[in-house]
Structure formats: structure tokens, C-alpha cells
Amino acid sequence: MRFMFVGDSMTIGRAGDYTWRYRMWQHLNASFGGPYKIVGPRTEVYDTFADAPVSHDYADPDFPAHARRHLAGWGEGWQHMAPLIGGTVTAHKPDVLLVSLGLIDLGFYTDADQTAANARAFVTAARQARPSVRMVLLPVIPNSRAETDAPFAAEVARFNELLAKAVADLSTDASPLLLAARPEAYDIHYDTYDGTHPNASGEHRLAGEFAAVMHQAWGLGGPYRPRD
């Protein structure tokens, strides 16, 4: 089975991060119980000094290159990934997309309705490229701006409702969609390094939500157990 991570800055990570992708790789190694592969066109993390995704400085230098693959970008959201996903799925043939997008869209580019429309376009394009592809979509998680900007918090809440509706509307037997849980215990003061981007504990929480829903709904992997 082939997995591909799709996301924004919280998924690509910055130089020196482990990333929640790394935590998921650890989880799959420990619990998947069969052959799998992580696929995607990119392997880098974001370099804050270069202001570009050009670093390979992961916190664990032994994180193997083949497991670092992804389709994630600092400052990229649903509106950026929807045009890319068809060609990427065609080229890399993922069976499961693990998607964490939306915060950057709502923060800089589109409102909730436009963001939800881009999410639906993403699903359509992925399926056109691979009709059997499965997807797990994460709602927008807690962040510092939502704590201080009430209109923005309202847009986040509305988008999460629209995303849940899209998952319910679009899921099919041939190409099922799952909505991962918005991590209830996620504390931006404990689980992030800046109110938005996950630190080590936040990475575990994000990986754990993806792992939990795949295990419960599809029997893929096992219960998530954080590993250092």
C-alpha cells in the first residue's frame, strides 16, 4: 500500500523538525503488518533562513530518504494543491492520501466556502487520476489566530463543518473518504512552538488522529503509540 502526505507548513515542517510525517512513518513501521511505501514528489523541509523548502535537516538524520516523500509546502493550501494533485497522483500512484490543509487558505487566500470548494475540486482531481484512491482529511486544528480573531475563528468553524459535509457527500465504496478527528486535547501552548506549528507532542497528536481513524475504519495499522 502506498501512502502520500499532503499538507501545508504543519506537514512539510521546518529544518530541525521531526515532522508528524516522521511520527506516522514510525507508526506504520511498528503496526502496519505488511508492505507499504511512502510516495510523493518532494522530500525537503522548509529552511527559514533561505525562506524556501531546500533543507534536508530533519531532527533524526536516520529518517530514510524514501520515507521523507510528500506533497506539502510552506504557505500552500487547498487552492495550491487542487491543481497539483491529479498529476501527482498519476505519477506516484498513492492508495491513501493523508491530507492536512485549510489553515493557510483561511488565513491568507480564501473564505470558508471557497476553501471547501477547493477541497471538493481536490477530491475530484485525485479520483480522476486514480479512481480507487482513499483519503483521510484533517479539519483545521486549534491555532493562535483563532483564539484572538473572532471572525477568523468563525471561518475556521464554518470550514470544518463544510469539510465534514464534503466527506459525507463525496465518500464512495470505491474511493472512501474519512474525516480525522480534530484533536480535542490539542493545546497550542503545549503542542506547538509558535501557536500554530506542532512541536514533538503536537506531531504525535496529529499522527495519532490519522492513525486512529485508519485503524478504526479500515483496519490499517494498529492503535497509535508514541515513539521517541
TrEMBL record:
Top-level taxon of origin: Bacteria
Residue ranges annotated for the SGNH hydrolase-type esterase domain, each copy included: 5-203
Pfam families according to UniProt: Lipase_GDSL_2
InterPro entries: GDSL_Rv0518-like, SGNH_hydro, SGNH_hydro_sf
Identification of the protein by name: SGNH hydrolase-type esterase domain-containing protein
